[in-house]
């Protein structure tokens, strides 16, 4: 994991890969054990906070489990509000992680029933944010492992490719699949992201409910945070 530790400065020398991975996982745990505070919800580009800390954005279809994943990362259930109404959060929600990193929860996409003006407003907000944010280090793109990549995900990937934002696919709800189903969706996803210029090659498999992949995801995010 240390080979792309840009920004975090956590390159550990003289350790075996296993020791390095274990240290990053522990450092990631400690980062998210500290205070995570909700800063603001941004409904328009004029409301974006000043460019300061590195930002990690979370993208995903409505109901992909984005709020649950953010809460699992932070080890508490109240950081991100989970909404039962898909497409309700039409804001970029900003969270400060221990003064070292900002997490940006982007409004979910792929709401078939949303009126066109709402979808256009979403596109303007998200595209404007992605293209104009120099501190955006990576976008974590959440994909429900039960469904794999769908056309709305592919549209988002194209948007990210065009905005030249590095994105990393995170499969959610992997506890709902058996081993062979999971292996199949993982292989299909890897094949597809290989064709995208801005896609990060490492795929992360998670289950917020069971805590699977959460330590690894924290370690990945840690490497993009400001050093202590």
TrEMBL record:
Keyword annotations: Cell cycle, Cell division, GTP-binding, Magnesium, Metal-binding, Nucleotide-binding, Septation
Classification via Gene3D superfamilies: P-loop containing nucleotide triphosphate hydrolases
Protein's UniProt keywords contain Cell division: yes
MF-aspect GO terms: GTP binding; metal ion binding
Keyword Magnesium: yes
Residues of the EngB-type G domain: 52-227
Gene Ontology biological-process entries: division septum assembly
GO cellular component: cytosol
Secretion signal, residue range per the UniProt entry: none
Cofactor(s) this protein requires: Mg(2+)
NCBIfam families, per the entry: GTPase_YsxC
Function summary: Necessary for normal cell division and for the maintenance of normal septation.
Family: Belongs to the TRAFAC class TrmE-Era-EngA-EngB-Septin-like GTPase superfamily. EngB GTPase family.
Official protein name in the record: Probable GTP-binding protein EngB
Provenance organism: Magnetospirillum aberrantis SpK
């Amino acid at each position: 994991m240390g080979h792309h530790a840009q920004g975090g400065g956590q390159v550990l020398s003289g350790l075996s890969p296993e020791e390095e991975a274990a240290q990053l996982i522990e450092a990631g745990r400690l980062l998210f054990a500290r205070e995570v505070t909700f800063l603001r919800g941004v409904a328009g580009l004029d409301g974006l906070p000043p460019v300061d800390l590195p930002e990690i954005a979370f993208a995903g279809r409505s109901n992909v489990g984005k709020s649950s994943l953010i809460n699992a990362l932070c080890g508490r259930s109240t950081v991100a509000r989970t909404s039962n109404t898909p497409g309700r959060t039409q804001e970029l929600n900003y969270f400060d992680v221990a003064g070292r990193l900002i997490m940006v929860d982007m409004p979910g996409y792929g709401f078939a029933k949303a009126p066109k003006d709402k979808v256009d407003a979403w596109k303007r907000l998200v595209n404007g944010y992605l293209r104009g944010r120099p501190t955006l280090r990576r976008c974590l793109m959440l994909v429900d492992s039960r469904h794999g990549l769908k056309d709305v995900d592919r549209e988002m990937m194209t948007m990210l490719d065009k905005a030249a934002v590095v994105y990393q696919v995170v499969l959610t709800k992997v506890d709902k699949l058996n081993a062979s189903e999971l292996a199949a969706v993982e292989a299909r996803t890897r094949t597809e992201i290989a064709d995208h210029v801005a896609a990060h090659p490492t795929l992360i498999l998670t289950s917020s409910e069971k805590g699977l992949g959460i330590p690894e995801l924290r370690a990945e995010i840690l490497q993009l945070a400001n050093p202590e």
